[in-house]
Amino acid sequence: MFGFLRRKKPPPPTPEPVESASKPGGPWPVEPASIAAQAARPPQPPQPPAPSAPAEPPRTGWIKRLRAGLSRTSGQLAGLFGLTQIDEALFEQLEAALLVADTGIETTTWLLARLRERVKKERLETGEDVRQALRATLTELLTPLEAPIDLDRSAPQVWMVTGVNGAGKTTSIGKLAHLLRREHKSVLLAAGDTFRAAARAQLAEWGARNDVAVIAQDGGDPGAVAFDAVSAGIARQTDVVMVDTAGRLPTQTHLMEELRKVRRVIGKALAGAPHEALLVLDGNTGQNMLAQVAAFDAAVALTGLIVTKLDGTAKGGAIVALAHTRRVQPIPVYFIGLGEGVDDLQAFSAEEFVSALLDPTPRSH
Ligand SMILES: Nc1nc2c(ncn2[C@@H]2O[C@H](COP(=O)(O)OP(=O)(O)OP(=O)(O)O)[C@@H](O)[C@H]2O)c(=O)[nH]1
Ligand SMILES: [Mg+2]
To answer: pTM of the full predicted structure?
Structure first.
């Protein structure tokens, strides 16, 4: 299973596969840096931490960055829970804060109803009690989104990566290639974005950094590239073939149709493939995230999500809305992205996400 991302320590920053349980003391978290800057840099030996930034346990650093990324929302919410008594004003302010955080009317209404219920039933008295109740409710709601990818399926397994323009598809593929190599998995990348030479170059760069082959074609049909890559993956007995695709909007019906075709072609190259149809979502997207999920799900039957850019100005509420509105058939959030660096992708944890949204001070794990 693809559970290695959650608890293991990061590897030294070399492209070669290394032991998964890497030695402590490596740089973590890796500071965000542009792809170009990182790619241009020759491989560096692990650097000792700067004196002003003492090394901290990897996961603590990750949580801190997630907290910083979601600080807009946590800042809005924090002020509400210091109250010594619960009144209507608290619910009104909470409603406003949740709406501002992109949680949407439907999910906000549902959350407030749940909270009111709990206040009554559990005889809650203070703002802090409400915070704890919201914490429990959100954790319960988001936990079904946690899921590992099964890596033990027969090889090759094919992951198709989709999303709107600039969501972070290619970057996430690069990060995943790195993580898979750490697990000693062989990887092949397909440059399914055949429209732009720069897109091929970007994927090739990630391939070179991870010592992974990239199947590309000058222009032409994305389906053909995907077919070639899957066929090559079968011939080379590659563990994971990842197919990048060009960014597209759900409203571009001909491009959504093209995506369907890529999926069909992958299935023709290998029965049962793609094993994962992933949608990459920009964490800043807000409520439009729901429409994107619905549209891409209709086109390619999504199996999982990657939410990127939670290190910036993301508000987080849309993920809560996703969990609520799709609670009957949740689509897992396999990974979240917290930067442009190769190590800036980790498994989604409901507990950590809710903690980043609601906890006033870092919790020790
Ligand atoms: N801060 C931050 N930037 C990210 C993250 N993921 C991707 N990016 C940046 O977002 C920009 C777009 O990323 P790409 O990977 O090129 O996105 P894409 O979806 O492949 O884009 P198209 O192929 O053009 O549709 C790049 O500058 C990335 O470095 C993230 O988690 N955090
Ligand atoms: Mg791309």
So the answer is: 0.86
